[in-house]
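P.,

For your records, the input lines for the assembly:
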Amino acid sequence: LSKKIAPFVWRGIVSIELGVVAMAVLMVLVFMCTIAQVKMGTYGAVEHFMRHFLVWARLGNFDIPVFPGGALVGLVLTANLVASLFDRLVWNWRKLGLWLVHAGLILLFAGEFVTAAFQDDMRLTIEQGQTVGYLESARDVELAIIDTTDPAFDEVFAIPATMLAEFVTVNLPNTTLSINVRRFFANAQLSDREQSDPPALATMGVGTGVNIVESDVTTSDEEDNHVSALVEPIVAGHSQGVWLVSQAIDAPQSFSHEGHTYHLSMRPRRSYLPYTISLKKFTHGVYPGTDIPKDFSSLVHISNPVRGEERDVLIYMNQPLRYEGKAFYQASFGKGDTLSILQVVANPGWLLPYVSCVLVTLGLLFHFVLALRRRKAKA
Amino acid sequence: MKTGMRFAKLLPALALVLALVFVVLGALPPGQVRGFDVDGFGHIPVLEGGRVKPLDSVARNALLVLRSKQTLRFQDRTIAASEWLLDLMFRPQVADTQPVFSIDDPEVLGLIGLQQTSDRYFNFSTLAPHLLEIEKQARAAGAIDSHEHTRFQNAIANLYQRIALYDGLKNTLQLAESRGLAAELEILSTPEGKQHQDELAQQAQFRPLREANADVWRNAGEALREAARGNVHPALPALARMASAYGSGEPEVFNRSLAEFRSVYAHAGTEAEMVLNRIEPFYKGMILYVLALLLLFVSWLWKRDLLQPIAFGLLIAGAVVHTAGLAFRVILQGRPPVTNLYSSAVFVGWGVVILGIVLEHLYRRGFGTAVSAAIGFCSLLVAQALATEGDTMEMMRAVLDSNFWLATHVVTITIGYSGTFLAGGIAIGYAIRKQVIADPDPATTKSLEAMVYGVVCFALFFSFVGTVLGGIWADQSWGRFWGWDPKENGALLIVLWNAIILHARSSKWVQERGTMAMVIFGNIITSFSWFGVNMLGVGLHSYGFMDKAFWWLSAFIGSQLLLTGVCLLPSRFWKSLGRA
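Structure tokens returned:
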């Protein structure tokens, strides 16, 4: 039986019709993803329509798949393309153009899969004169517990928000400290507690004066989630009370036990760099007599003890710094033009689209020129 | 007989030359108005919106914003933009009676106690008693997110902005309620003078006074402040005399002071833009395209061999004017041809016309002329509607400030739009022809199909390359190749649709008629990608929400759906009617 089915399946996979249908489905997805961005934000819409194998809709209490998702369509198209290379487009010179086009497209798709899987979006927020040795995640959040006892250095423990969401008790390595997660809010609205509000959930710190209302997670491009949690630090079996930690709380919170002082803060996930970056000068130019932005640039200094590197770099619009597998882009600014925000992207597949572009362009040119010549010859 | 033949052969060239003469005549400087050198006044270079431009451009753009036209009809006379600006600044009591505000919204009209009439233009004096109410309503609208605006809120906010522009221009060189610029020079250091200087500096819409040694431009208020410190700008007294002379009706004094003022700026540098303003190449191009189209329609019924070449000559004349206009803009701006939505409309039309001329040259059936003239006309019409948002040569925001990427990504993708629209246009021609002509000549049908196939390949190539180049630009400036941003998605839709057409055709899934219907549907995809996504108001690419445009886009999409239907309708349908 398998001998009968296999060629049938293969013919399906290589068929031009499958490619056409997949492209049509992709068009529908792209269209819906575009329209949905108004309500869901770009990130939310792309997650919903493009990053999964199926598009889900909520019907009553059930999530049901209603449409193939971007990942599935991408896979089908890739399979169809690869198959067509081996089957339909037999190697001969006249097919060279089409061959190049389809090979280029495969690369392009591969690049998008690599991006979806491995791209890390980070931020570097830096003030003029400041030196920073870490990046902050654009989306992920962590609870940092910082032991500031030793004035020479801080010891930092970080618990990712995804772990807090599992309500676990986390024992910090090489300490007697553990963190017991009482509650977790993926997004919450915090306000000063009024008389009429229910009693505070926190027993220590700023949280005793705060009223928390859980709210829906937002994916909008304009709003941020305020990730919050109620945690109970336990040192050697002694509870330190219940503390409210939240991205909406700026005020420092700390407790001391047996000569150790610990700071608690909910902050964007940090990853530390083996080098440091200092902002020497941020420049923001406008067109004369207007406030239309003309250019932004950050003059930074890289100090890398590992490579023994000390140098200045100017990062500006359309001119990122590519350094050690990361690209630093001028993204935003603030504090009266003394603060610069760089977007930092690590994407191992960043080069693929460039290669693909060259292949497809050459391929299309070759094919169309050939077609034109043949038409001329016929006439 | 022989001379007649030769004459007929010359006709297209003659049409071309006549059309170009008609255009060039428009470039001649106009005469004086009531003895005032209005054209010379229009030449004065000023800094506005980050760019040095002639005052004439400021006046034209302001009128476009206020009333969607570059001129004004008042007391049975056409008033040019520069003259209107002179009146507004130096004889505001006259300007206030000229109908410069176009108001369409019935609710806004109701608010100021007016009824919708055939005349939709109103003067400032009519609006003046209602200014407080308009401001109150506009502020109320301003407090609401513009995505959630009702039509009334949009209209009132827009009217308020236009009144602010009008008022700002009126009070740029001298305060309308004061004794004038000359009087300011006498009360420089008094408290009243200081107060006027502050008001002028705040209201100023443009800066007319360039410091001799530095690239610093001052508005009237700032120049008066400097004068109070003892640094009188050499051109300031002449400007003041011009103002008084115009107000009191003394043309000789005005013209003398104007010449003196302009002598300070030995380098005028505004002549080229003045020529562009006077020629109005895109408006003239529109006229030529319409003439070509009409002539071609006539040719299908009468004197085909005589009229078709003439229509082609007119199309070429339109293309020459269109190209010249584009070239002027490129040189003036120092930028590639497409920098904003307006210029993309101009460029899409240009691309179609050039491609159409090539097709006409290859196939000579009048279709290339007809379709490219029609699309060229429509795209210039769209451009004209978009021009009412202000200066079309605005400065580029930082992230877009890259001539390399504007020249590669933006131009390529726009050529892709041209290709899909041209293919769509030919397919529409095919559809209509199929329904109208009982026995279409198969050779023509075959060449139509060949044209469409070629143009779709062309469009696929340019939209694909353009899209990927866009991704590479995004990678260079934002750190990601592909972000599923609406404008990127729109471009991807065009690429996919063209690829689908070619694959469905090569697999024989669709035949001639199906291909043509798909190509017409491509118009919808391209218009969505070009304009529709800008209306969503999300993403890095969105340049602004346009709600009037939304209705036009819907109408366009509706018409294209209808035409797709027409294309799919088998011609048997008519035959069956005939039988009945």
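Two observations worth noting. Chain A touches chain B through 63 residues (CB under 8 Å). The radius of gyration of chain A is 27 Å.

Regards
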